Amino acid sequence: MKFKILAGLAILTLLSACGEQATNSTDSGSQAPAKTIKWKLVTSWPKNFPGLGTGPEKFAKLVDEMSNGRLKIKVYGAGQLVPALEVFDAVSRGTAQMGHSGAYYWKGKAPAAQFFTTVPFGLNAQEMHGWIHYGGGMELWQELYAPFNLIPLAGGNTGVQMGATRVFKWVVGSIKRLIV
Fold this sequence. Notes:
Elements: H1 2-7, E1 12-17, E2 22-24, E3 35-43, H2 54-66, E4 71-76, H3 87-93, E5 98-102, H4 125-134, H5 137-145, E6 150-151, H6 164-179
Parallel strand pairs: 3-4, 3-5
Antiparallel strand pairs: 1-5, 1-6, 2-3
C-alpha cells in the first residue's frame, strides 16, 4: 500500500541546487573525521500531508539509510521555511538544496514547465514515465531548468488529471454539434 501511495504521487519535482552545503562532524569510531552533509528540502504541501507530504519524508529517510547517515535531509512543509509556491525560487537561490512540488506551479517562470507534470488531456502515468525517462523528456526538462540552477527529477505520478476524459468528451461533442 505504501508503494502505491508513492507511485500515485503527482509528477513532482525534486529540484536540486547544483551546489551543496556541508558540515563536518566526527565519528568517534573512525580514525578520520566523517563528513556529514546537511540539506534542506522544502515542499509545496504541509509536512506529512497524506500522500504528497509523506513522499519527501520517506525519501529523506531512505537517503539517510543509504548514505549511512552522511547525508541528512531535513524536510520543511509549506510555510515552515518558505511559502508553498516559492519552492522553485528557494532552491534556485540556494535557500534550500532540494524542493518537492508540482512543475505546473512554475509556468510563470518557465512557460513549458507544466508539460513535465500531469495536466488535463495530458499523458497517462505510463506515457509520462516513458517520455521523461526514455523519450528525451528529461533532457528537455534539464535544459528548461538549467538557467535557474536547478536539476529536475521525477518524484511520483498520479496519472491523468481527474475529469479530463469527461471534459474531453464534452468538448468533442460540442465541436461536432458546431460543425454539423
